[in-house]
Amino acid sequence: MQNKNRNQQGYKIKKRSLTTWLSIGFLSLQCGQLYASDNLPDLGSPDLVEYDLQTEQSLGRAFTQALHTQFDLVQDPEILNYIRQLSYHIASNSGNKRDFSFYVINNDSINAFAGPNGVIGIHTGLIAKVDKADELASVIAHEIAHVTQQHLSRTYEYNSTQGSLNSFATLIAAILVGMVDPNAGMATLMGGMGMNMQDQLKNSREHEKEADNVGIQIMYEAGYDPHAMGAFFGKLAKESQFNALQVPEILRTHPVTLSRLTAAENRAQVMPPLKIRKQPNDLTLIKLRVAALDKKLDQVDQRQLTSDERCYLDNLNQLTAKLSQNKFKKSADKLQCLQQAAQKDLLQPLYSTLLIERLQQFADRHYQPALDKYLAKARNLIEYQQDIWPTNLAVRVRHAELLEMQNESEKAQLRLQDGLQQEHNHYQINNYLAQFARRHHQEATANYYQAQAQVAIGNYARAKHFIEQAEILNKQNQEGISQKINYFKAKHEDKLRKPSKPD
Fold it and tell me: Which residues does UniProt assign to the signal peptide (predicted)?
């Protein structure tokens, strides 16, 4: 009977709206208190019933679709690659073999969240705020711990067994309201939850304790300073103590208390000393890219930047500015220091990829002198770095762009297709292939790759639309991709026949 009820609940889960499931994903972050302890309650009791794997995967697909349709996702390959490489490294040290998906949300609030089936989001505001990679790692490790400890499924099971699905819906509504106005969100929560609110808060606090404790262990195993978690939250609390109206979102979802900070530090103290690692400047350059994304480059404090980092900033400014023809020609002078920085540190590809972005800018404006001077050098650099970093999304994309600039379209396409071996980049790579095909007036092929991109995020309704368009256009334009289309339709036949309702 218990399994039957659980399956019925799972069926109801699949029928709920994507917005509802998006809000559920934020549940693990709300109303909690973040602190670590060695004397944690046993949340893994053998009689605990959680929703099944199939249901969780369905939730994950719905959640992912919602992210791609309702949120401003960052597609910048440099930022996305940095967060994913960092996050997958941390996740690989969690002792959990499950799949994770990491996304960057273009939102200047200092926050992060964990959703169903290992979907984790990082706000650009958080990236901009951290001073060290260890601080960023501490937040990511905490969110990974929410997933590995199955807190979302436990919250769902708790509410289901308590017969409080209506109250659960109220909590979800409060979370959505609270994302815009925390005071209004709390009012909604208080008005709808009644006596059950205390149980909800207790359940959430227990999860936060465990996520903090496990997260500190995970980041230590990944080689990051375990003291960074308490230090980062303490720094945020100190900065906002005199202005309640500017409390970072992450402190509202993870309230800082003295006991939390003390417990986190105590937990870190029992870890054996870490070998000091030289910090690369990846984070500094990525923060500059985030500032460019948010049009805040003029707010960057240059006093702490090295000469190479200031060169990177200057070229980002040139890339994003609307330059007159005269200023545009003068901006070519900025390329020299960028090339020198790239050659100085061959293991740092961010200088090379920005150099290629800038050269694309000159190619678009048909300014040949800059291309003649730097294209060959840029190609040598990016080919070397492609060999060193074969899974680096930014290196692969910029390499393909450079090949296209040099009229080697077939090689560029193959370079992108090789990137499909990394499953977590399927959505981005297929979208780049679609853009590539469209630039070459191959509309059927572009729709085919867009269908592949939608499959990568589980949106089969959109995938069906694009593959049908690809089939129609292929018959009209004779692009010769009938075999690919037929294989796609056969591979996904069941899901394309009755896809979930699109957004």
Answer: 1-36
